Amino acid sequence: MAHWTDGPEYAPTERPDVFVEPDAPQLGHADPEPDAAPRPPRAEVAPPPHGFSAPDAPPLDALVPASAPERDPHEAFDVAATPMMSWSPATLPPPEGDPVPLEPPPMGPDGFPALPAPTPSAWGHAHAPQGLGRPAPPAWAPDQPFPPGVAPAPSNVPGPPPAWPPPQVNPGGFPQAGPAPWEQPPPQRAFEPVTLGTMLRNTTPAVLICLGLGAIVFPFSMAMLVLASVLATRIRYRRRIVGRMFTGSILLSFLLGMAGMFDYQGALDPLGWYDASTGWAQLACLILFVAVPLVVGDAMRRGEEPEQFL
Questions:
Q1: Pick from 148, 151, 215, 302: CA 20 to 30 A from residue 206's CA?
Q2: Domain contains 233
Q3: Is residue 32 part of a domain?
Q4: pLDDT tens-digit series, residues 65-117
Q5: Helix or strand (DSSP H, E) at 271
């Protein structure tokens, strides 16, 4: 049995006054199970051979080539200069003495650097034109204007700003900036209270009269249902839903009538389909007489806009 010395999960919820060893005897060790099958005998190890002599060969450690001395990774590299600061290969000695000052190139008479004189040759001297040569330009000082025909030297002093054309002014017909003119909102549709009278009036009396006659007069139920579906196009609320209701009622009445005639007579009579469908059409007229005004009234309560006439 486990107690508090086996772990905190076995400790009691309330601290006891004293800790007493349990009276249960300690469990002993289980006896080893006997082997079900005998173990195979171990193979005998052959004794080492006698009179074995090693071949005449150098030891293995002598065959390993000597490696270069390894660098201590904790020590820094020995360099003469950093790659970012070196200006010449390490094999060249540093320059001695003061640096040679740079002299500006000689300027020509036109204000630009003069080209070096060509190397004289015997052929060029023999074929040189015989003339008086180009006269030397007059002496010029910085406080004197440039002589005519000589371009001034380039300067970093900015000149006068260029003259730009005046900006264009918006024409008189351009709209002035400002708030947009106020537009009168469209007139709101007058609220029409949803009553039984408004529901019947928006369903149109012609549809209600046809449905009522179809529900009362049995022989004309199918004809009145078809006529009411044609007049339902004048309804201005949920015209598509109302049209589906009439179409489904006509098709369902026809199919149920044909199925009943086939079940009763055992054959289909092309001339008796009207009489067989009239009973179902009468039930459809009664249901639509109540359902169509409710659909129109729900559209009016939701504030839906009336549709235009076809």
A1: 302
A2: yes
A3: no
A4: 888 888 888 888 777 666 665 555 555 666 676 766 677 777 777 777 777 77
A5: none
